[in-house]
């Protein structure tokens, strides 16, 4: 699977991300100031999207599956 749908809570719509276009993902876990996981996805065309909570988790899991990374 190379496409992942994530929700856009501000606009009420959604975005579909193409995992083949992802150049880098920067992730942040929980800490004292943060209530949820966060991820910034950078694309090879120069675009980026910031995700939080379930969307960040779903994209990270999809990237791991796409890369063939097996969680233990």
Brief overview:
The chain is 19% helix and 39% strand. It has 1 helix and 5 strands.
Descriptive key words:
19% helix; 3-stranded antiparallel beta sheet; alpha+beta
Estimate percent helicity. 10-25%
Mean pLDDT: 83
**Major sheet attributes:** 3 strands, antiparallel
* Helix segment tally: 1
Note poorly predicted spans: none
Count of β-strands: 5
Report the order of strands and helices.
EEEEEH
The radius of gyration over CA amounts to: 12 Å
Structure description:
The protein is 19% helix and 39% strand. The chain is built from one helix and five strands. The strands form two sheets. Strands 3-4-5 form a three-stranded antiparallel sheet, with helices on one face. The radius of gyration is 12 Å and the shape is globular. The model has no long low-confidence stretch (mean pLDDT 83).
Per-chain topology:
Layout: E1 3-7, E2 14-18, E3 22-28, E4 38-43, E5 48-52, H1 54-67
Antiparallel strand pairs: 1-2, 3-4, 4-5
């Amino acid at each position: 699977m190379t496409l992942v749908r994530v929700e856009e809570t501000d606009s009420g719509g959604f975005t579909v991300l193409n995992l083949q276009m992802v150049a880098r993902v920067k992730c942040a876990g929980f800490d004292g100031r943060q209530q949820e996981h966060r991820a910034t996805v950078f694309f090879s065309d120069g675009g980026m999207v910031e995700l939080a909570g379930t969307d960040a988790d779903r994209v990270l899991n999809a990237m791991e599956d796409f890369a063939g990374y097996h969680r233990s």
